[in-house]
# Entry
Amino acid sequence: MRLKEIRKERGISQLRLAMDLHMNQNSISRYENGEREADYATLIKFADYFDVSVDYLLERTDDPRMNR
# Structure
């Protein structure tokens, strides 16, 4: 998943992302490191937050707007 890449590109800390999405920073870290897989609702939250498609987050496309 591209979560870490997108977050860093946008200059957003794990803590800021967690606070904005009402999540735990530990969860963000685990998603980024592949220790945990995001469910559909969480994937949609990430995609909406970064204004990209779920397919882009999941590295199914290199076009961030595809299928939006």
